[in-house]
């Protein structure tokens, strides 16, 4: 069977991509943020995964408010970086793990999920940025990908419990896959931020820091929160953190927190990451 070698939770703030494009990673504003990811990049180089499952949300680029699936899974051979309005970024296309993607979709349907199945679709910064943070800017990505889209934009968004259940199905799909691929799972989004309304600019550092420990050691607390709890604690866009639950549910009940990093503000958000490995 395939093997889950690690789980990563990370921000996917679009300004991170801008900083990479403009060569700003060593500037005073950005260096503390990017330095915090070096441990994860080194872990990736040593772990050598074959497949990256990336859970993220589209930001009005491949889906728009007239058609927003609650969950979608890509089964394409190739995913192009979408042009988000200022030209396509100079990064490689992403190769899909096609056969495993279909296997995962089938498992989801067996477990009474009804995902939108995407045979052809582009991917935005929600996937691009985490891949760059983990793998840098290679000429070719060293992993194949399985993209999973979660609606965190148009209400009603899925419940934290439903995201957890999807993660359990993901684990089942990986463990029942007959190949020997080494799989890393990236849950993306957050941390606390709100881009509109009377709380525009909202950041909750205390809640963010508690999350980075809690997602590893006390995920039940976050699994049992309501969607309204997420908005209250992390902001309307900070509710993206429910996507980390997909990753965490696919891991063992007990994990080792190998590395965590937090930096705020990065644009108008709290930002950071965790690196997890399964404990015995």
UniProtKB/TrEMBL annotation:
SUPFAM superfamilies, per the entry: LigB-like
Q: Where is the Extradiol ring-cleavage dioxygenase class III enzyme subunit B domain?
A: 8-264
Stored Pfam families: LigB
Superkingdom to which the source organism belongs: Bacteria
InterPro entries associated with the record: Xdiol_dOase_suB (IPR004183)
GO MF annotations, alphabetized: ferrous iron binding; oxidoreductase activity, acting on single donors with incorporation of molecular oxygen, incorporation of two atoms of oxygen
Protein name listed in UniProt: Protocatechuate 3,4-dioxygenase
Name the species this protein comes from.
Roseibium aggregatum
Classification from the root reads: Bacteria, Pseudomonadati, Pseudomonadota, Alphaproteobacteria, Hyphomicrobiales
